[in-house]
Amino acid sequence: MIDAVVIGSGPNGLVAANLLADAGWDVVVLEAQDAPGGAVKSAEVAAPGYLSDLFSSFYPLAVGSPVIGDLRLEEHGLRWRHAPKVLAHPLMDGRTAVLSRDVSTTVRSLAAFDERDGAVWEELFAEWQRLQPHLVNALMTPFPPLRSGAGLLRALGAQDLLRFARFATLSVRRFSQERFHGEGAGLLLAGNALHTDLGPESAGSAVFGWLLAMLGQDVGFPVPEGGAGRLAEALVARLRAAGGQLVCGTPVTRVQVRDGCATGVELADGTSVTARCVLADVGAPALYRELLDDMPARLAADLDRFDWDDGTVKIDWALSGPVPWTDPQVAGAGTVHLAGNLDDISRFSHQLELGQVPDEPFVLFGQMTTADPTRSPAGTEVAWAYTHVPHHPPGGSWSDPGQRQALLDKVERRVEQFAPGFRDLVVGRHVMFPGELEAADANLVSGALNGGTSGLHQQLVFRPTPALGRPETFVRGLYLASASAHPGGGVHGACGANAAKAALRARTTGRVALALTRSLVGGAPASRGVLASRRSEP
Prior knowledge:
- The chain is α/β, with parallel strands linked by helices.
- The chain has two domains: about 1-40 and about 230-305 and about 465-535, FAD/NAD(P)-binding domain; about 40-65 and about 80-225 and about 305-445, Alpha-Beta Complex (Polyamine Oxidase, Chain A, domain 2), CATH 3.90.660.
- It is built from 17 helices and 18 strands.
- The strands form four sheets. Strands 1, 2, 9, 10, 11, 12 and 18 form a seven-stranded mixed sheet that branches. The protein has a seven-stranded mixed sheet with strand order 7-6-14-15-16-13-17, sandwiched between helices.
- Helix 5 (about 115-140) crosses helix 6 (about 145-170).
- The model is unreliable at about 525-538 (pLDDT under 50).
């Protein structure tokens, strides 16, 4: 019997395995795909010699995360690269809001929209610098974050804590109206909030937009030199150096449970791996509905209301030259938001809420060779974009060639609005619609990137369902380690770290946490025994 099995080798699973291996545990990671990394992979898919990041690409949360920082992955081959500028949001009238790691550059950009806004941005960044150590730790630890929460309270004081709590409920539009005079800062915040599924009118979108914008101001939007896959490779190299094991091409079909306790996993070939605990880097619905034989009725009802984030279409291009931006300020930005003004972003988000394919897409665009010159031959560019879409287009399917081509045309027309002649540079492209994204990584259900919505109704103690906001499940020794758990999506490793720390604590305090979790989800179901198999059921 081994100490722990980790299901899935995404960044959360690999972080969890590393922490357990550091503690001296015998740990094995089982990955269904032929290569590790989950949604952290790279490959030459658009054209030979052009290295694309297949899923995630820029990693401010990884660099800002104390979890990943403490792993010291640079000692295992990881090197970060930065574009000259972090982010640009151009408008059709020729103005561009620019985010740079040099705060004076950002301030000058926003002051061009309204001279008063540069000073406001400096105030926000100063507040971020004061709160950042306590805030980031509070966000990335299980709820309630007692130690980091106490530090945040000391940094804010009682009165400002209430003001910060109010800020955390605001929409981007309301916050922008309260703090800024021109539209540049609001565009930066709204675009960053849309890295999740939160539009400008969504409650909580202001704090999400502010968090990513301040991380960009502070640490940038860095990329791994040589492709996103290098981040996964560093995590794997560190795991193996610590004595952990990784086995790919090994799907897990069932978590084995006896007398309410996880005892290991069953594999697709019918063999079993026995372990003292199981950590699952899989979506919450998949864990409870597909890998377990039973669950409490109340949890089943809660999962019926589980809210996925929007679907995604991802496009990679190989370009024969740099993107011909009309505004040269955009050329040096690693990330570009192509969206129009704030009202245009609101219209895009509202159409998604209605289940419609937006008329004009919000395009999140990446210039990868600009950020990392190793990605393609000199003088060329690897570019990518994604846009959010309904999981299923009205009256059709994303497998329909007509629907696919229409969406691709919309995205490329949007790029052409700001970079005329872009299509003439395309020497290869690779497109993944929601179905292809899910086929490549089962956690990306219908193209959802964040393991569930970032809406306030599914955060903290509501993630993934109303309970403790913790990785413990109603099965003793089974822990949810994916982005479906608090604190949610993004490559920060906190979901995996929280699960690993819960497993390490369980030998002394696990019974208390288990009892609380079971009381909130409706109790423990009767086990069907170690040898039960869903494959034999009708």
